[in-house]
Write a structure and sequence with these properties.
Order of helices and strands: EHEHEEHH
Largest sheet: 2 strands, parallel
Strand content: 15-25%
Helix content: 40-55%
Number of strands: 4
Number of helices: 4
Structural class: alpha+beta
Strand order of the largest sheet: 1-2
Radius of gyration: 14 Å
């Protein structure tokens, strides 16, 4: 199979720190090796920082904000900042 998109739903939830890091590295390797896109649903800020090149924050079921990790991190919007605390 030549999968173009892989969907991950909370891939690091309830894992210890070592396993979390291994999962993030594995996702990055698979993305590079197979040239796939990934949709990652996560509350893990470090996972989003390490893996994403673009993020979408959903608030109240709407696309509230999107951009790079750095762009969203520097946002002055209190709802966006709440994600990073």
């Amino acid at each position: 199979m030549k999968t173009k998109i892989i969907l991950y739903n909370e891939p690091t939830t309830k894992l210890d720190h070592i396993t979390k890091k291994e999962i993030k590295i594995l996702i990055k390797k698979k993305k590079k090796k197979y040239n796939t896109s990934s949709i990652i649903i996560t509350h893990d800020v470090d996972c989003a920082r390490m893996i994403s090149n673009r993020m979408i924050l959903l608030i109240d079921r709407i696309n509230y904000a999107e951009g790079t990790f750095e762009t969203l991190l520097s946002s002055k919007d209190p709802k966006v900042q709440a994600f990073f605390k």
